[in-house]
Amino acid sequence: MKTIEVDEALYRYIASHTLHIGESASEILRRMLNLPPADGDEVPMANVEALPAVSIEPPASRESAFRQRLAECQAGEQKKAVDRFLLILSSLYGLDKSGFAEATESLMGRTRVYFSLSEATLLKNGRHTKPKSIPDTPYWVITNTNTERKRNMVEHIMTEMRFPETLTGEVCSMI
After folding, report:
1. What is the pLDDT of residue 14?
2. Can you supply one Gene Ontology CC term for this chain's record (predicted)?
3. I need a labelling partner for 101 at 20 to 30 A (CA). Which of 61, 66, 88, 155 fits?
4. CA–CA separation, 21 vs 118, rounded Å?
5. Which residues pair with 132 in a beta bridge?
């Protein structure tokens, strides 16, 4: 087994294509490149040119993709802050599932859990949490927080997902 170094964006891209817990980066890449399962044989260097190209989004296009997602779901045009909040979260999840999961794991209040994969968990951790399902995700989020707290939650997630401060500020001001 050889070791290679990859940048954070590439690592997150590969990790976002995980199908099951414990799947290795090699297994993920083999699946993405339509290569047969490992049998100990190496791909001869002469055949490297024949491998299909993998499209990796550089950071600039990642920001563009996020802006496009926000525009498509019309997050900025929603009348209620909670609706804008949910669509922003949905867009973040759609762009980077594993990055979103990592960012929400560490996001908790003093006595509350803010994000969960089940409504019941959020209801257990607060009387009046008003959990709502985040569209097109398996996640639930509490929604009875004030607008500033919702902004702080989005800021935390976008910072953890390594979005630039300027974009993070723009998105938070949409809420």
Report:
1. 80
2. cytoplasm
3. 61
4. 19
5. 141
- Report residue 88's pLDDT band, with 50, 70 and 90 as the boundaries: very high
Cβ-contact 164, 66 below 8 angstroms: no
Range in 13-27, 67-81, 125-139 the model is least confident about: 13-27
Amino acid letter at 17? H
Whole-model pTM: value is 0.66
Task: Round to whole Å and give the CA distance between 26 and 48.
Answer: 16
Which strand (E) or helix (H) includes residue 26? helix 25-32
CB 73 within 8 A of CB 90: yes
For residues 26-31, average pLDDT: 83
- Residue 117 near residue 138 (C-beta atoms within 8 A): yes
R_g of the chain, CA atoms, integer Å: 19
Listing from the earlier edge strand, what are the strands of the sheet with 115-116?
A: 115-116, 140-142, 131-133
- 103 vs 2, more confident: 103
